[in-house]
Amino acid sequence: MRSIFFCSAFAGALIITSLMQNGLWQSHSFMLGVAHPLLGVDHLLVMIAVGLWAVVIGRRAIWILPVTFLATMLAGFAAASVGLDIPLVEPVIVSSIVALGVLVALAVQARVWLGALIIGSFAFFHGHAHGTEAAAVSLTSYAIGFTLSTATLHAIGIGLGILAARSIREVALRAMGGITALIGLALMVI
User: Fold this and answer.
1) Does 12 score more than 70 pLDDT?
2) Choosing a second label site near 18 at 20 to 30 A (CA), which of 72, 145, 168, 185?
3) Residues 127, 89, 92, CA angle at the centre, nearest 5°?
4) From the DSSP assignment, how many helices (H) and strands (E) are in the chain?
């Protein structure tokens, strides 16, 4: 199982890196979608934190939480694409950094359905943010790009979580959660 996540993360990173090196992200919707989660610290932290928390919960959560995030994110993207205005998108996104960081730092063991509900709630807002920024591009290509990028970041979070869980008393895993929460708090102030 671990090797699948490491291989997925590595392959995704290679694909994204090679496409970005060719400068395609500047003119193609797909690369704009790929770049969005990678270039926004808020999205980057949350996507990785989803993987970390999935490791904390364990078992089925390792695939259910990321899949829930992706599906609900696409629903939020679709809502924004058809012009549905949702209030407080940015505050919820920043709050999601803090909340997921705290869940990881405290090693909160939630039932998988509750974890999926929490993840899905935040994912909708992240997807909506993607949708509002995709107005001038091909929506399908853009959605494929940010979905691939998001899945890769989830895999990286899972890989980091598995590595950190092996450390003494999972201190490293909890530290990553704490750092994520602190960065989220700093982003609230900025």
Assistant:
1) no
2) 72
3) 100
4) 8, 0
The H or E element spanning position 156 is helix 139-165
Q: Which two tokens stand for residue 60?
A: 């089925």
How far is Cα 131 from Cα 28, in angstroms, rounded to an integer? 16
Q: What is the pTM of this model?
A: 0.84
188: which residues sit within 8 A by CB, 6+ positions away? 94, 95, 98
Where do the structural domains in the chain lie, given as residue ranges?
2-189
Which of 16-20, 146-150, 174-178 comes out lowest in average pLDDT?
Answer: 16-20
List, for residues 90-145, the tens digit of each pLDDT value: 999 999 999 999 999 999 999 999 999 999 999 999 999 988 877 656 888 889 88
Residue 18 has pLDDT above 70, yes or no: no
Alpha carbons within 13 angstroms on the beta-carbon side of residue 135 total 6
Mean pLDDT, residues 4-31 taken together:
57
